[in-house]
Design brief:
4 helices; 133 residues
Amino acid sequence: MKDRASYTPEEKLKIVRDVLSKKTTIQKVAKEKKIAPTLISLWKKQAEDAMMARFQPQPKGRRKSTPAVAPADADSRSLKNEARKAKIKAAHLEASLKEVKNRLSRYEEQVDRLVAALGCKMVKVRTPRKAKA
């Protein structure tokens, strides 16, 4: 099995600088370093995004304290938590349903054996449906 190579931030920065300064192409660096070109493209995009964020205009005055968790993050986190709980509950219900079906089939087999032992015929009784009001 092939071990994953890890690159220090300095190595990543050097590779991205070479690509951004047009000294070399992503393909050439990928071949030299034996790195997937998509990984280098990802690093390049991350660097460009970080630079863009750095040069965004900053509000004047003192910084306001920001809440530890943004409301949108809290909402998505609670929705994910609810979805996880629902999946667990669904799995438990499926297991319970499977157990009930197994029990029902065992009871049906017992009834069939009793009917055969008694030598009688099984008649299913249907209950009439309630009329719609």
